[in-house]
Amino acid sequence: MASINYPLENTGVGQRTEHSVLQILYRWIATTDHKKLGLMYIICMLLYFVISGLMAVAIRIQLAIPNNHFVSPQTFNQLFTMHGTTMVFLVGMPMVAGLGNYVVPLMIGARDMAFPRLNAFGFWAFFFGGILLYSSYAFGSVPDVGWFGYAPLTSKTFSPGASTDFWVLGVLVAGFGTIASAINVVATTVSMRCPGMTLRRMPMFVWVMLIDALLILLIFPPLAAAQSMLMIDRLAGANFFNANAGGNVLLWQHIFWIFGHPEVYVLIFPIFAIMSEVVPVFSRKPIFGKPAMVAAIVMIFFIGSGVWAHHMFTVGLSSLSNTFFATATMLVGIPTGIKIFNWTATMYGGKIRFATPMLFACGFLFQFLVAGLTGIMLATAPFDWQLHHTYFVVGHFHFTLIGGLVFGLFAGIYYWYPKATGKMFSETIGRLHFWIFMIGFNVTFIPMHFAGFLGMPRRVYTYLPGHGLETWNLISTWGVAIQIVGILLFVVNVIWGLWKGPKAGDDPWDAWTLEWATTSPPPEYNFEKIPVVRSGRPLWDLKHPEDPDWKFE
Amino acid sequence: MSAPLLALLLQAQPSGLTEHKITNMFNPLSTPTRVMFNMGMLEFAITGAIFAVVAGLLAYTMIRFRKRRDDDSRQEPPQIYGSNQIEAAWTVIPILIVFVIAGVSARSVWGVEDASPPANALHISVVGHQYWWEIYYPAYNIVTANEIHLPVSRNRDRATYFEYTSKDVIHSLWVPEVIGKTDLIPNRVNHTWVDPSQAGVYWGSCTEFCGVQHANMLIQFVVQEPADFDKWVADQQKAQPVPTEISAGQKRFQISGCWACHEVKGTRFNGRIGPDLTHLMSRREIGSGVLDNTPENLRSWVVNPQQAKPGCLMPQSKISGENLDQLISYLETLK
Q1: Interface test mutation site (partner B, options A383, A463, A469, A550, max chain B beta carbons within 10 A)
Q2: Mind listing the pLDDT tens digit for each residue in A486-516?
Q3: Which residues is B191 bridged to in the sheet?
């Protein structure tokens, strides 16, 4: 079995060199290499993150004081619609695809994804879907119906012009890309694992990405169906959602949230995946209770697919339905709790190195805990009748998606940055980025919970003075200024690392999965010899021949 | 407090009702909101305890097991792969917690949703419009807009039952102290009820995004002592006296086309698109809460509603000078 030595040999066979800009550009555009596509996803994601973040800045400036005239009501509605749509479909989804693409084949010792051309198709579908959505600005017809576009506000009557068509088609096209990339991740993990890598030995990251891809395949077709129905309504005069002709506007809500709620898990699973790599490596211990961690993800997959109507506690469902969906939603807390406990237990008894990726992982743990607990509050239908569609909800899901998702994503980006670039970022700037961004995040989003308690509905372009909302909104807006400093530090760090960063070496974190066994950045074919593994931590086995993991399996 | 100031305050509150501009969901004043409040308090207690325990454990672990500065050995800590007993424990405890919360939640849902109305309940229908509320009292034959009058009901004897629907898109009605959120949905009727225990004026709003002026779709619940409420009903039931001679303002109302959207009972003005104006001057607000109902505000609203509420469906009127004076003086007779 011991057919590989550490580090893996790499003679540089087959490495090509280009000179002209056109040649380099052509190689990127025509590429089917999973690493290039992965990086292209991540770069697009970061660009959209900045664009969508700037929209959020405009929203916060408008809401800093009551009766502000920074933007018109129309523009404000476009801003929050495009902010939400972009963050979910053009930041969240390329993050899922980008991480899956870049890391999964490396971790399972494969040379590429199972379907490289499908992979390229997936990226370009996402890319042009995004362009289609944003071309609405060029045509002056920007979507303004909110990111979940409730019928009948999306009908021709209430949304004339082409704005909603841009919204539906852009997201639909990007969604085809997502489905393609999910098929690829499933096929790759099923069929491309290196010799010796049984499902039990597959790293946690790959396990979670596999379940994530299956969840995408479960929920994106319903979204495409809902969007197609809406398009037929708008362009061909059907009446699926036309209340005046006997259509049912709640049908949209059901189908949308059958997609929309599990979508939250699609977005957070890759972060669970990152956590399950970063926490063990920086605690110097294997993940605690790996079978339970996998079981928890599968449980979230199943339970999470049956909780969608907790977005609809106010639409007048029967008491039985409300109770069912409230209870189901709370059940999700159990496997999620298992995950948090197991990460804590992984750290317990370890030797924790607080390098930048681990700092972000720790920030994730505290903030995601808060998001989970406010989620339990919203899950109880009776309390939700008060909290639903207020700023409390806005605070809650930003704790999930920024406090959880973005912090975990930064942990992942800092963790694999040396692998993808071959350079180290600045640890000092990284730490500064963490602390400033963490403070800015909390200053922005904690006050939103209180604005919600005071009765501020979400999606309002202004509010009247004298209703007690001024202070909390002003604090929120100042928090954004602090967050901007944090993000700028991140940009500086990425550029500084590429420009002046020291060489990272193959394995800067002393980690255990296969991607750290090849060079940084990895060659196009990843591994000159396909590695053979005997346990879940092949590099641990190589580094500790006296105490290898396979003895305990 | 000095006497003149007190007098001024009382003058500002002609109905003598305390106005709750700053809403407070933690001051529940009806049975359903009290149920929601109790649910919330249980949630705060449980999630607060969970946060303290888990965050405490996390912080303890991070501090206790950090790599010390003086520890530069490459010695790895003991490799622990898991423990079935420990994992069983932290699976069972959350299950028990969920069992408790889900049970209380179920009981609360049933208690609010499936309560049947008492025989003499007041019935009100609310119809959502972009961006205002139309309110019907079928038993009293009253139509009004943007403020809901209802009686205090100390032992559910005069509880109020609502029917909600919408003329256009989905809206949602929420007045935190008095009534939780229920959506107003086209082609569907939703039901909810309240029994407010304390008189006052309570602000609320539309909480489902309904278009460009969603932000200014506010509402007020005017909760009155039963006697005051009955008096309000009697006032509202009076039709406007038919004048022997058509006034100049009334003509202006006709010529300018106001009647195409607005109704004034007792006249031939019977528009059904905008709010009924029969008792306009008895209302507290203009434009669904965007302006207080004062003569100056009424004037600026009639001239150009797009100023205070850009994107609302009432167009700019282009009336000015003497015509405007006549129109306003007519509107001011609609008491």
Answers
A1: A383
A2: 999 999 999 999 999 999 999 999 999 999 9
A3: B163
The residue segments making up the domain with residue A176 are 34-300
Please, what's the b/e burial string for A450-465 (b: 16 or more CB within 10 A of its CB; e: otherwise)?
A: bbbbbbbbbbbbbbbe
Q: What is the pLDDT of residues A375-393, one digit of tens each?
A: 999 999 999 999 999 999 9
The CATH number that applies at residue B158 is 2.60.40.420
A282-319 pLDDT, tens digit per residue, is 999 999 999 999 999 999 999 999 999 999 999 999 99
Alpha-carbon distance A361 to A373, whole Å?
18
* Amino acid symbol at A83: H
CA angle A124, A125, A128 (to 5 degrees): 80
B232 within domain boundaries: yes
* Main-chain dihedrals φ then ψ at residue A511, nearest 5 degrees: -100, -175
Q: Who's near B116: CB < 8 A, 6+ residues apart?
A: none
Residue-wise DSSP of A278-308? HHHHHHTSPPTTHHHHHHHHHHHHHHHTT-G
Element (H, E) at A107: helix A93-107
Count how many pairs of residues, chain A against chain B, have C-beta atoms within 8 Å.
Answer: 276
Q: Across chain A, how many H-helices and E-strands are there?
A: 17, 0
Residues A41 and A123: beta-carbon distance below 8 Å: yes
Q: Is residue A286 part of a domain?
A: yes
Task: Quote the Cα angle for A506-A508-A511, to 5°.
Answer: 90
The Cα-based distances of A548 to A205, A513, A544, A545, B79 in angstroms read 21, 14, 6, 5, 11
Answer whether A349 touches B (CB < 8 Å).
yes
Q: At what angle do helices A319-347 and A356-379 cross, to 10 degrees?
A: 160
**Same structural domain, B127 and B223:** yes
Handedness of CA A469, B297, B214, B178 (dihedral sign): positive
For CA atoms A477, A483, A485, A487, the dihedral sign is negative
Choose one of B237, B257, B278: the last residue of a domain: B237
Check if A505 contacts B (Cβ < 8 Å). no
Total structural domains in chain B?
2
Contact by Cβ (8 Å): B159, B226: no
- B174–chain A nearest CA distance, Å: 8
- Domain assignment of residue B205, yes or no: yes
The contacts of residue B235 (CB under 8 Å, 6+ apart) are: B279, B282
**Pair (B321, B264) in one structural domain:** yes
Q: Which A-chain residues 374-393 have CB contacts (< 8 A) with chain B?
A: 374, 376-377, 380-383, 385-386, 388-390
Q: How far apart are CA A242 and CA B187, in angstroms?
A: 9
* Helix (H), strand (E), coil (C) string for B297-332: HHHHHHHCHHHHCCCCCCCCCCCCHHHHHHHHHHHC
Q: Give B117's DSSP letter.
A: P
A chain contacts of residue B114, beta-carbon cutoff 8 Å: 319
Give the C-alpha separation, A12 to A523, whole Å: 8
Q: Are B176 and A386 in contact (CB under 8 A)?
A: yes
Residue B24 belongs to some domain of the structure: no
pLDDT tens per residue, range A344-374:
999 999 999 999 999 999 999 999 999 999 9
CA distance B204 to chain A (A): 8
In this structure, is residue A545 part of a structural domain? no
How far is Cα A179 from Cα A224, in angstroms, rounded to an integer? 10
Give me the DSSP letters along A213-224. HHHHHHHHHHHH
Would residue B102 count as lying in a domain?
Answer: no
Contacts of A477 (CB under 8 A, 6+ apart): A60, A61, A63, A64, A444
Give the C-alpha separation, B136 to A114, whole Å. Answer: 64
Strand B147-151, strand B218-224: pairing: parallel
Structural domain of residue B131, as residue ranges?
122-237
